[in-house]
Structure formats: structure tokens, C-alpha cells
Amino acid sequence: MRTKKTIFTLLVVVATQTLLAQDKYDNYSFFKLYVVNDNDEILLVKWDDQWEIAGSRYNDPISVKKHLDQMATDMGISIKDPKLCGVYTQRWKDSPYLTLMQYYQATYDGGDLKIPDDCTDIKWFSYKDALKVIPYENMITMMQKIKKHPGKIIGAAFERYKDANNKTQFITLEDWYLLN
Length: 180
Hints:
The protein is of the alpha+beta class. The protein has one domain (25-178): Nucleoside Triphosphate Pyrophosphohydrolase (Alpha-Beta Complex), CATH 3.90.79.10. The protein has four helices and nine strands; from the N terminus they run αββββαβββααββ.
């Protein structure tokens, strides 16, 4: 009888854990590759009619280094010395899914610019001009924090939503802070 109770209890625990495990959400990482050349220019891509730092969802079974190298190759360039410089979470308003945004800064090491498949343009911008053309406040602030705190890793948390004009806006959940 005791064996039956033990087996029954074990089955209940396994079934409960299986049901609870199904409540997990598909969180994922998204990489931004902040490339700077010898002229202190920033490489931006035009995606969805907006200039921004090149990005890519990271969900392939490859190393971080290989993913960053692939992002660079997609832009026709090679990079050196990639360093993690920012990490923050964001989610769309009323969504349970989180995105872990990871910013990596790297130095341009050569190559000819090539427009990535999902973009319409690619171009070097002075730091000042890049800040003017990027429409995303959190991306601009991240660039400013990276410049102000070289070698540091910047953190924050945001919620995203579309305003009445269909522009992406951000609500700060955790203000910018240094992680190291």
C-alpha cells in the first residue's frame, strides 16, 4: 500500500511540474552590435525606415563570438575586440514575454559595407549625427552611457508600447545603472 501511495505522489508531483513548466514564456536575447571605426564613426543600418544600431535575435546554438562575427559578416565587415557594454530587459506592454537586450561594442577591422538582407541601407555616421537620426530614446541613451562609461556594462529595464502615432515609446521600469 505504501508503494502505491509513493508512486501516486510521485506521479502527482511530476504532472504538476509538467503543467507548471508549460507556463514558462519564450524569453530570448537580442544583440546590438555597436561598431566604431578609426574616425570615431558609428555604423548604422536602416531597418523599417529607421536608422539604428544593427541588431539580431540570438537563438541559434552558436557561441556569442560566432553570432557577433556573423552579424558583422552580414554587413560586409569584420570586427575586433567585441566587448559587452550594455544589458537591459524590455517587454511590450501587456505582454508576458521579456527580451534580454545585449549591446556589444566592437572596432571595425575591415571590409566593404554591404546592406544586410532585412535592411534598406547601411552607413557610417559621426557620433553626433548618429544621435540625431536614431529615433529610439533608449538606444540614444545607451550610446551616451557607453561613451561616458567606457569599459563598464550598463543596465536598465523598459516596457515598450506604440503611441497614437504608431511610434515606439518606452516606459522606464529600472533607470540606467552600472553593472560593474
